Amino acid sequence: MSINFDDPMNDETFRTIRENFAEQLVAMDEKTALVNNLEFTQQSMKDIANMAGQPATLEMHGEGEIKTMSDGTRYRVTRDGWVKL
């Protein structure tokens, strides 16, 4: 999964995502967090969006899908989660 924002995250949001998803966080840049976690609640996403002061989009990705981070690093979804290419 990925959590996506239209604008860069503020420091508080960045820190909260890092702390709350530490074990499952694979990569993060200013607008995207890649996580290996299937347990999101509506409330946790609402809290993240409120903290960010902007909409947060949760995307589900299927095996083989590729996501490119802002620095050009690419990650692919495998059966075991995100893998850096």
The structural class is alpha+beta
Strand order of the largest sheet: 2-3-1-4
User: What is the domain tally?
Assistant: 1
Contiguous helical run count: 2
Global mean pLDDT: 93
Tell me the layout of helices and strands:
Elements: E1 2-4, H1 11-20, E2 25-28, E3 32-35, H2 42-52, E4 57-59, E5 66-68, E6 74-78, E7 81-84
Antiparallel strand pairs: 1-3, 1-4, 2-3, 5-6, 6-7
Describe this structure in words.
- With 85 residues, the chain is an alpha+beta fold.
- It has one domain (2-84).
- It is built from 2 helices and 7 strands.
- A 4-stranded antiparallel sheet has the order 2-3-1-4, with no helix packed on it.
- The longest helix is centred in the middle third of the chain and has 11 residues, at 42-52.
- 20% of the residues are buried.
Notable characteristics:
85 residues; alpha+beta; four-stranded antiparallel beta sheet; three-stranded antiparallel beta sheet; 2 helices; 7 strands; 25% helix
In short:
With 85 residues, the protein is an alpha+beta fold. Helices cover 25% and strands 31% of the residues.
